[in-house]
Design brief:
Largest sheet: 6 strands, mixed
CATH architecture: Alpha-Beta Complex
Shape: globular
Order of helices and strands: EHEHEHEHEHEH
Number of domains: 1
CATH topology: Spore Coat Polysaccharide Biosynthesis Protein SpsA, Chain A
CATH class: Alpha Beta
Strand content: 15-25%
Number of helices: 6
Radius of gyration: 16 Å
Number of strands: 6
CATH superfamily: Spore Coat Polysaccharide Biosynthesis Protein SpsA, Chain A
Length: 174
Amino acid sequence: MSIQKPFLSIVSPVYRAEKIVDKLVFEIQKTLILMNVDYEIILVDDRSPDNSWNAMKKISAQFPEVRSIRLSRNFGQHPAIVAGLSQAKGEWIVVMDCDLQDQPKEIEKLFNKTKEGFDVVLAKRENRQDSFFKRLSSKTFHKIYGYLTDTKVDDTIANFGIYNKIVINEVLEM
């Protein structure tokens, strides 16, 4: 009797990534092959103004486990993530940015935490190389959000994380 391998979906919103999306896919594949899991990679083009879409199509044509989705217009990062989540088939879904500041090799650490019974495991940012404007706008957003909701917001928590498909389905139904 053979044991079924876990099936992971990796969702990555893509914007201005024509020069790095192939490296992203390569690094994800390398990690997942070493983890000995079945997987799919879902790239979501948020109508990037560069040639990201063409790069994504080329990769998808080369690797059947890579699917590329193109949004009808630029909706922003979070709607692009939701578009990918709605197409994900894996029992576990990883969300990560396309800029490789989230290292694909960390997927294994996130997945190992799920084996301890966690349905959601989020990564914490350390030493990201974001622009001054992105850091400033992120800090401003989190300060205002924290003030309005009267909660402490940890702005080092990233999009990078792994989620049980059941949790994703519940969120998508809201």
